[in-house]
Batch of 2 targets.
Target 1
Amino acid sequence: MVNLNTIPPKNNREYYIAIGLEGSANKLGVGVVKHPRLASHQSGDNSHICKAEILSNIRDTYITPPGEGFLPRDTARHHRNWVTRIIKRAIKEAKLTDPKLDIDVICFTKGPGMGAPLHSVVIAARTISLLWDVPLIGVNHCVGHIEMGREITKAENPVVLYVSGGNTQVIAYSENRYRIFGETLDVAIGNCLDRFARTLKISNAPSPGYNIEQLAKQCKNKDRLIQLPYTVKGMDLSMSGILAYIDSLAKDLFKENKKNKLLFDQETGEGLVTVEDLCYSLQENLFAMLVEITERAMAHVNASQVLIVGGVGSNVRLQEMMAQMCRDRANGRVHATDERFCIDNGVMIAQAGLLQYRMGDVIKDLKDTVVTQKFRTDEVYVSWRE
Amino acid sequence: MSQEIIDTVTQYCTKNIPVTLISQGAEAAIFTTPVHPYLQNTNEDEVYIIKYRPSKKYRHPTINKALTKHRTLSESRILAKLFQIKGIKVPKLIACDPYNGYIWLEFLGEDLPNGFGFSNLKNYLWMNATDSYHDNVKNTLVKVGEQIGLLHWNDYCHGDLTSSNIVLVKTESGGTWEPHLIDFGLSSISNLVEDKGVDLYVLERAIISTHSSFSDKYNEWILEGYSNIYKKHGKAGNQRLTEVLARFADVRMRGRKRSMIG
Amino acid sequence: MTTVILPQFEGTEINIALYENVKNSKEIRAKIADLPYALIDAKAIISGEQLLSAIHRALIEVNYNKMRTKSLHSECLLCLSPTSNIGDAFKKFGILDNSTSIIAVHIGAKKEEINYDFIQGTCIEFTDENLGRLADKDYISKIYKLEKTFRPETNSDLSRAVVDAILLRGL
């Protein structure tokens, strides 16, 4: 029996307020979320209908010049520089007059992610916790995405495809764990797209993946797909080989290596392939692999819904393909969120953290607030579901 | 979707080959038919399997075409190779159309008595749950282990080794069951101990989840048969066995998946 | 003569005749290019299953992929072969001057006229028993390159290995 009302809200209010701090990669996000205390939460499996109200959702992204990725040290410095300002803005926008009285719990990303940026943010979290005398909760980043997605879409028990810069996983819930059914064996999908964007030297604003998506849309030879390795291995997939191959094609294209038969007509020397074609083929290939392993997981657990979360989840083409797959399965439905929630943000950390808090799980000692680069989704005990 | 697949297969097979859908997974649909694609039936009860890989609308047609061909062939090729390995029992390949994604196979197994369903390992263990430590059960499970041992010793990995993918065929004398491995859709040639460890782990999980009360004994017998095969090969065999079993324990510890960095 | 219609390709009729004690192989070979038949040396065939699986594959190739040779009859010889070399297939499965047992095959629309009278030999029933008797198993193992990897215990095991090779040739 799940009782989400185990811990009463502060000061006899009828609602909970949580603030969430996220900074596991190049996005720094702070969000404030409010849950009404409802009788329906006394029992039953209702963690996906919290009626959460998003009071604020502030984010600042560390954007590097074209051709460059973000390094841990520089990203950490960005987060340190901005975290105070972003917290202040989030508090102000949420119209919280006194965080000391208003906030029930401070949630931070415990992992997985890049070490240095995680550290910068957890230090801010510890500071405000001591300052305001508010308890802390460490949240698994992936679980944050999943819980936010469930709350926004009201998908009760979906298979989750989590696709971002650092992760590529197909997840299904079973016996109080988000279990990983399939995942990448090497690089993450977002990382693969980011690195290809670097090779193409296209802009990192607003995000490299977004720009690849736009280029892919402009592809004029959609019927002439460039064949790339298709590397699904059971429920898992591998992407490093695809990246290496398409990278080499892009390099040949830029160097105008006329010997490459795939790229240049051997008689006239005319170019056969454009950057747009490469982007299109890469997306079609990678996304087909993602949809395939998601379908396998759905067949395995007999699920009809899919929830796509993570930064790459805001890609419209991926959503389209997933929707097509679901239409072809009986009663299938796909749920996706828009970029406000797909891309890393503070609200999702607050949402998952608040669920944990309401189940009575809270950090008692500051020494338990250590962040970790490695933190598997299935390590978290999901007490708020049946 | 199901209906669409049935329609496609019916059209392909023509009215002369009536088909019945018996199962549908994410990747392939399995049909049975009483008609052989090129031989006159000698036995009226004979049935054959048609495995069809439908094209996926979400996938680019070029990828669809290449994948269908590649996977149909790779499964057929593995079946052909395995048949030539002495002792391994797999269904016979009858025909294969890689351009359209069809494989015709021999049908193995039968219905178990008393409504226990089709004679795969899973149902067989259910049937014997009342007398689960019977010598016949042990005998069958040791043979299951031997089949997997032979597969792995020859550097093939099944990739989806569940108790439903092991079919029991009654021997001609009728007394005992001969385990056959089926569904090589996810199989590969691999000399990695990791893949072998995962195969063993997947089967162990399948047995634990469906027959939990007796699973310890069952898994012990399977491993007994598995080890028998390796031990026949002397010192090298023992060494390879130790490696596989160590990795199997390792895979079990971490629950199949690798540990992960952010 | 045996007539077979594959259920999947209803419009095509296959006529097969098996001859032993053939005396005029040399003569037949001289005019082989003009004969609208596939003529196969029976020593290379272990079973009906082997021949028919090759014909089935030929029809699949022709209907769903492409024809690699000039006619369905030569396609049938190619499909019997474990390699994709057409000349090689004719050498291994076609008849020689000294061939004494021949399988004549005609593949075509229904009611086409078929006349195997040009073969001087004894027409016997196209059965696995007769084929097994006329087959040269060592030769078959050799052309399908089975002798190193596989020692069949029965004709049906050999046939199965041969069918596998036919189905997977060149793919």
Target 2
Amino acid sequence: MKNFHVSTTINGDDAEFICTPDETLLDVLRNRLGLTGAKEGCGTGDCGACSVTLNGRLVCSCLVLGAEAEGAEIETIEGMADGDDLHPLQRVFIDKAALQCGVCTPGILVAARSLLEKNPEPTDEEIRYWLAGNLCRCTGYDKIIKAVQIAAAEMRSV
Amino acid sequence: MALDTSNKREFKVVGTRVQRPDGIDKVTGKAMYGADVTAPGMLIGRILRSPHAHARIVSLDTSAAEALKGVKAVVTTADLSTPEDDYFADIRDNCLAREKVLYDGHAVAAVAATNKHVAKEALKLIKVEYEILSHVTDVDEAMKADAPIVQEGRADESVHEGWSQNVTSHFEFGHGDLEAGFAKADKIVERTFKTAATHQGYIEPHACLASLGTDGRGELWCCTQGQFLVRTKCAEILGIEASQLRVTASEIGGGFGGKTTVFIEPVALALSRKAGRPVKLVMSREEVFRASGPTVSSSIDVKIGMTKDGRITAGQAKLRYQGGAFPNGTVEFGSQAAFAAYDLEAVQTLGWNVMTNRPKEISYRAPGAPMAIYAVESVVDELCQELSLDPLETRLKNAARKGTLSSYGPTFNDIGLVATLEAAKTHPHYSAPLGKNQGRGLSCGFWFNFGGNTCVSLNLNSDGTVGVVEGNPDIGGSRASISMMAAEELGIPYEKVRTVITDTNSLGYNDVTDGSRVTFAVGLATIEAARAAIKIMCSRVAKIWGIDEEAVVWEDGCAKPSGPNAGEFPPMTIAEIAAIADNTGGPIAGHHEVNADGAGVSFGVHIVDTEVDPETGATKILRYTVFQDAGKAVHPDYVEGQMQGGAVQGIGWALNEEYIYGEDGRLQNPGFLDYRIPVASDLPPIDTVILEIPNPGHPYGVRGVGETSIVPPLAAISNAVSRATGVRMTELPMSPPKLLKAMSER
Amino acid sequence: MVKVKLWGSLRTLADGNEYVEVEASNFKQLLDQLSTKYPALKPQIKRGVSLALDGVIYREAWFTEISDENEIVLMPYMVGG
């Protein structure tokens, strides 16, 4: 099996890697680039723990091939804070206890940011449907929905 | 151990909503979970699993796999040790099958290779010849005398002669004259219920990185609820000494009881020992479903008698739990919990633990209680409907309280059930109007909680800050709670304390993070460790001041003279004491080791409004309120989080989640697409009401809160559905096709 | 003598008694005495039991003091999730 040499942009930085044709973007991020913030909860696109954006579109990185990253812009949880300045979603998630074990949190934050970019003033229902692809087993989602609303309001006010 | 009954009720730190110490790592992707680490020279492990529900392993040939380029080790059960104790032997045989495979997904062999592609190829080269045996996956079928026998000779002395060999133990609890009780009833309802097996459904699959030398020295990194238990089990299964295996718990991506045993860890260690290199082993989601512990499935008969005015005269339950392919101990907890919320003159519960060809069950949040209480609370609700009684008033009328002889034996002391029911009764939710196709249900819930073995070290740093070292993986914010209790006792700000969870070689044995025990028991040990450090600090200051030790008191983070007679000295702060510790006798620390008791049982009440779509049979949760006694909520956000999370797991159990086995004994839905846990759009907000009735067994009155919340949703939702549709469902989950069918037969 | 309450399925192993009396001043002595007096209870005691003392459940704790004033109930060994 011949490997691919892929040139891409991750969190604004140039990145290059070698991958096999059947290797997922998630495996590339985790195993070849050391970006373990995206998690594999299922490997079948059902849990959303591996959420990243690919050219601005929210995807499950376990359903994208590494080779598809060629020439693309990828954003992962590792790029969400600006240095030591947390994104409002990240800050509010801590303030409002919107995480327990935290393993779904990177995926939920990436997905929530993607929602607020498209829809800065979502209803609770819109948040719930947008995040329906991100499973959380600890929280019952209540504090997550509230945290997204608070962060959205804060982001609108600046 | 004498219980600390000096309940403190004024708090400065405890009860506030501080930021958790691991927050930033978890929102930035830096936190290290089970699968997030690598080691130099690391190999990738994979496990070959049985495609059959029940079969004899006639032959197992690994030679072709071993010969494949890139394969560095292949292991089977022959590479594991022979523990004397059945308990450890069962765990070993669940990790790698011996002689027979007992369920679909049972591990047979494992390989370690230079990458996952080679490992996958190698699995295909392992030749296993199976003699297929007849299988059984249903609990009632497994109890029949002619059922296929999962394992022979596993029954204990409680099992009666003539019962199926799949029955491994039997329990009976209760008191009073049942016959007389039922004779006094105006109405008796008798029903049979079935509940499906559900999985804990943690989002992080089991993962570990193991390194073990031929000298028996090893390192293991894994996601677990208890690194000490992992060490004990792995040492037994590998035949090595506990002192030589250091286990470090990673951040844990959920557990809910499911990570209280080992599945892959001994296998990874065996591979590493054979290959001479570190081995990483991570389960796929399919493996998690097929071969890690779900909960039991059950079949339950309940009979309850009631007078016209709503007094229960007698209650009886017969509970049959299948716990998979090995003996399990779950039905005794369902049997004890079933009627715990009631003050009964006559009550009896009978329980049977049964083996089937399914994965071995492992604890799931209040293990054994949700299905038992579901059955009882459904029948109580049906009696209320039949007799036109208010279900909340009826529960209050029959509620267990201080002095009640509990259905499981002891007499209750301080319990919070009546207060919890009263809070539910006066809450606006209970009297809010309902629309068409809507119904309101409620249920009580109960769990025991426990304390257990706990060690805490508390070290004073030279700048006056404090490090707490404990041994229980933080599964829902406990590091924050532990730091808060240390800060409270020392009288210093929360930010001055950092709590870390350490490895197995750095602290004495700690029981697993389970039984809702961590905030209770680790908190108790932390408070005691702080008191020990305070004692040392006061004695150092007494020497400086030249007064008696007893004349120095600790207040607001300072040593002070106890009164005017002690002399006039300005208070010395913890930072001042720390700065001169070198001169006053050396480092200052406090530690506490205890097998904590006095956890105190826990009650909860849930109210739910549902709407059932008459066209599809789909149930929507419209409104949900959880009422629970926390004793003292140390960090209210995370107490609410436990109440909300447990409620939603119960909602999944009631409506969607189930292990579905085909005629061939294979699991048909081993993935999140077909095993559907609740998603955000399925749910309304989950409202919470925390009651604080102090637990006399804890210095701050803390009561465990983690488990009780999964208990009430099953019946609460079934009762709401019954009131919305007029149909009494007796099977869980109440998936739309089942409910639609029941409605059409109405 | 302290009075110990047994759960239902243990009673057949203790001559059908719901309550048994043994000479004991702590849990360790109680369990030893039970094993001696009713050898059929031994396997269950070896597998593990909890004891409720005046409504408070203890999992181990051999040296917990007891007297004839206390309510003592034998229970299965507690587990949790």
